[in-house]
Amino acid sequence: MSEATPLDCVINCAAYSATGERRDIDIEQISDVLAIDDGSFVWVGLYEPGPSILAKMQEEFGLHPLAVEDAHNAHQRPKFETYGDSLFIAVHTAQAIDGHIRFGETHIFLGPRYVVTVRHGASTSYAPARARLEGERHLLVHGTGAALYAVLDLIVDHLMPIVDEFNRLLGELETDIFAEDFRKDTVLRLYLLKRELTQLRMAVAPLQDILSHLTRAATPLVHPAIQPYLRDVLDHAIRIESSTETLREMVTAAVGVNLSLVTVQQGEVVKRLGAWAALLAAPTLIASWYGMNFQYMPELAGRWSYPVLLVVVAAVCAWLYWKFKKVRWL
Fold first, then answer.
1. What is the pLDDT at residue 173?
2. Alpha-carbon distance 39 to 155, whole Å?
3. Are 194 and 252 in contact (CB under 8 A)?
4. How far is CA 112 from CA 109, 144, 210, in A?
5. This prediction's pTM
6. Rounded to whole angstroms, what are the CA distances from 251 to 81, 146, 170, 205?
7. Please, are residues 92 and 207 in contact by the beta-carbon 8 Å criterion?
8. SS3 state of residue 222
9. Hey, what domains does the chain have and what are their CATH numbers?
């Protein structure tokens, strides 16, 4: 497979002045912008870049080689690393596609005058985050920390609709759980739902830890004015993690209730079969006596023996039916 070209990988490359004004630039112009210490910063957005693009970013911004290696390989655990005066953050992203969660990764390089976001897998563009900041220059003037906040806020905001969708799916499955007939598909859907909720929690919990670290640890890369906004994102992440855990517990309970109902239903069927077997056993037993080809059976000689026998059999069956009905076996 051929390596992706810069045109394919570089989704966004722009320079922002100290007053928040945007200017689109080429990756070859990055060094020229950074050469002038005027309070501006560069924001580069990449999607599944090849080694040459990452090598170019490493050359332009002086990125740490270990962080660059992680960004290239993807499939990283969520992490927060400090390299000198820069940060490297890896978080998992998620999207709901056709009723299932698709996971991706975003790696963020943050320096005094640059932000580089590297997306892998299922991850939406961060163009809305850039557009939002460009419309709120009172945040954008605080530099790269504002860009970091915008990206993390967008990642967290995309998680809440997934939780809401799964909550709706669980409501639909609860209707199937209490249906009269057993559906194997219901148990399978509950299992898949719990598995995806577990994966979602594994993505949200580390993100919560990263946000907690950003809000607690003082760093010159995040202006104090941005800290309240990061705390707000942390609050949203905590709510999502709590909602996810609650849904997981509800799914676990739903699986248990479904299996209990199946067991109860099977018990009812066994009781009904046992009751009908007992009803059939009485006439079968009486009839078997007369199936023994004995010559001398006094009651056979009587004129009313056959009708009396039918009445006795019917009475026994009726009495058994009444007893089983009384104890709700029928």
1. 76
2. 27
3. yes
4. 10, 7, 19
5. 0.74
6. 35, 38, 7, 19
7. yes
8. coil
9. 1-127 (3.30.460.20), 268-326 (1.20.58.340)
